[in-house]
Structure formats: structure tokens, C-alpha cells
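User: Please fill in residues for this 109-position structure.
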């Protein structure tokens, strides 16, 4: 005969339309024992489509945002007539410019 024990934890998931493929348990470790305190049904939203690489003929710099960083304010970037000029003076702290692609459905390979 199988060993029958009382449940160590009971939680109501509420009304569900179908039996879920999985249930996430949230809790904490007490010594070497996991003690659940909540059960969640994971979202079934479809994953976002992966962005496509930029086409080979794309001017990448024209697609990027330019943002200087550093506490000494010695890095700068200016864009004029389709050209970006980046400059950074000497200093004792890290500084530079971040070039970031926009959320336009493409990513740099």
C-alpha cells in the first residue's frame, strides 16, 4: 500500500478554463525545506518576434541614438548634416559615448 500523508500546503488557484501545463510556486527556503506561500498560473501571451538584422545597405550611425556618459562631462557628441562627431577630453574618471539602436524591429548583428 502506498504511503499516504496529509498535504503540507493547500492553495486555491480559482476558476481555470483548462488544466494548466504548469504552475509556478512562490515561497522561501526554511532551512533545507521549500515553503510555498503562493501559486501562479504563468501568462500564455505569445513571445515577441525576434528583431531582424539591419539590412547590409543600412547606414547604422543614422539609425542610432548617441548619448554621452561620465561624471566629468568631458565626452560629447554632435550630429550635423548626417555626420556624428564624438570627442572626449582627458580626465580621471570613465567617460564616453553610448550608441544605441532604436526599437525599430532591427538589431545590430
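Assistant: Residues filled in for all 109 positions:
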Amino acid at each position: 500500500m502506498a504511503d499516504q500523508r496529509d498535504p503540507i500546503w493547500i492553495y486555491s488557484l480559482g476558476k481555470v478554463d483548462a488544466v494548466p501545463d504548469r504552475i509556478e510556486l512562490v515561497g522561501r527556503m526554511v532551512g533545507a525545506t521549500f515553503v510555498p506561500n503562493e501559486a501562479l498560473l504563468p501568462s500564455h501571451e505569445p513571445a515577441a518576434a525576434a528583431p531582424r538584422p539591419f539590412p547590409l545597405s543600412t547606414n547604422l550611425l543614422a539609425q542610432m541614438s548617441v548619448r554621452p556618459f561620465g561624471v566629468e562631462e568631458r565626452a560629447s557628441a554632435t550630429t550635423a548634416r548626417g555626420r556624428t562627431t564624438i570627442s572626449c577630453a582627458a580626465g580621471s574618471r570613465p567617460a564616453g559615448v553610448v550608441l544605441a539602436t532604436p526599437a525599430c524591429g532591427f538589431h545590430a548583428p
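For context: The helical segments are 60-63.
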